[in-house]
Each structure stands twice: as structure tokens, then as C-alpha cells.
């Protein structure tokens, strides 16, 4: 896996976190939820193409995404 997939996953999770923290209107909340799903898909793609060391990093990112998703629900 290139580091690009890992970076894309990290960036998507960071964006999801920002969007969920600042979402106020129903439209913003919906956009935030869509971003959470995009981040989840980026993580799955990155996991599928990663080394063992990269998977460890991705697991940490996944935990962050899970926390975001749990708090947002």
C-alpha cells in the first residue's frame, strides 16, 4: 500500500471529526454522517492494501472514527 491510502484515511477521519463537532443544522448533520461513512470506506480500502505496521496505525485511526461515530449517534 502506498502511504497515500493511509494518509487519505487519516484525512477523512479528521474531516469527519471536524464536521461532527461543528454540525448544527440537519443538513450539516447529514453531511457529517456522510463524511463518517466516507472515512469508514477509506479505512477499509487502506486496510486491504496495508502492511502490518500500517495496519497498526490504521487501527488507531479506526478507534478514533469509532469514537466519533459513537459520540455523534
TrEMBL record:
Q: Which UniProt keywords apply?
A: Coiled coil
Keyword Coiled coil present in the record's keywords: the answer is yes
Q: Pfam families attached here?
A: DUF3813
Where are the annotated coiled coils located? 29-71
List the InterPro entries hit by this protein, alphabetically: DUF3813
Q: Tell me which domain of life the UniProt entry assigns to the organism this sequence originates from.
A: Bacteria
Q: What is the protein's name according to its record? A: DUF3813 family protein
Q: Which species is listed as the source? A: Alkalihalobacterium chitinilyticum
Organism classification: Bacteria, Bacillati, Bacillota, Bacilli, Bacillales
Amino acid at each position: 500500500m502506498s502511504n497515500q491510502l493511509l494518509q487519505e484515511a487519516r484525512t477523512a477521519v479528521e474531516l469527519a471529526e471536524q464536521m461532527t463537532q461543528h454540525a448544527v443544522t440537519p443538513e450539516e448533520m447529514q453531511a457529517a454522517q456522510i463524511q463518517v461513512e466516507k472515512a469508514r470506506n477509506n479505512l477499509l480500502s487502506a486496510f486491504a492494501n496495508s502492511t502490518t505496521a500500517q495496519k497498526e496505525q490504521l487501527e488507531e485511526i479506526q478507534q478514533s472514527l469509532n469514537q466519533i461515530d459513537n459520540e455523534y449517534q
